[in-house]
Amino acid sequence: MSAVTKAELKEGGLFSKWEAIANKYDTLNDQLSDPAILSQSTLLVALNKERAELEPIAQLFGGYRRVVEEIAQARLMTEDLQLDPDMRRLAGEELQSLESQREAMEAQVIELLCPADEGDNKNSFIEIRAGTGGSEAALFAGDLLRMYTKFAEAKGLRVELMEFQETGLGGVKEAVLLVEGKGAFGNFKYESGVHRVQRVPTTEANGRIHTSTATVAVMPEVEEVEVHIDPKDLRIDTYCSSGAGGQSVNTTYSAIRITHIPTGVVVTCQDERSQLKNRTKAMRTLRTRIGDAEREKQEASIAEQRRSQVGTGERSEKIRTYNFPQNRVTDHRIGLTLHKLDRVMEGDLDGLIAGLKAQ
Fold it and tell me: Model-level pTM?
């Protein structure tokens, strides 16, 4: 199966791409029952391999079509004024459940159709900070922390709270989550930015809606650096080691000075009387110093990435709005609005993540 890009899904339509693969799967099944093909071992192996690649997508499509049909039926029931009000209410509840199933299936097929981005399976740090809005911003930051924890756990990811600064009213000034497991970074990488909340604070006596923000930064974990040193990049000098006061303590050329030409790192060792031992110790030191320098570069890059992700935390920089009075969540990057904020805050982010991945 050839890879399908997310841009193609957006332009050509997810359903049409998906349906074409399901039809191809049916065609392969027909071919594999053809006696003329069963007698050709090489062709049989190739067709079986292609069928195995398409099978999970095709089977998911069958379930998706059934859910789409049930959604249409449930929607008709909710709009049928001749039905008993209790029946319409039950149909509405069923419709919400079916919509959630549909979104989850779309998210799943996008994962199957699109090649994973490099680094999606890295562990990730999620940093949540209260933005503008005082105590209400801190309370919202706490809500986001709970939302992301529930979403990660639903995906089978391991979550560990690394840092936590609580405010006096039970809000969160700053929190850092470490998420580990397959897709840890890929599932959260689109959450970086300013999140805006619109709701009536519990402390507001007049029922006025307040607007506050929290910032989220998602960063892949810095991995241990594997240092490969090309011998051609080294300049190795030997000299006689000396003791205090310049007195010669070794008349042989056992001391080692190694210069790593690309980085300019220089290490020396004269602790041992053996040149080989000094060289071994110097190389260990060199690897450590080059590794430390590389880690510092990675950490500096991630720090800059965080600054670019969250901006200043002002309301105007928002990527998403959570409107509690209307039970609405809107992602401004893709123009997607869902009227199920209550479920989103319980960790049901599949619809939003699917839309962002398709974009």
Answer: 0.57
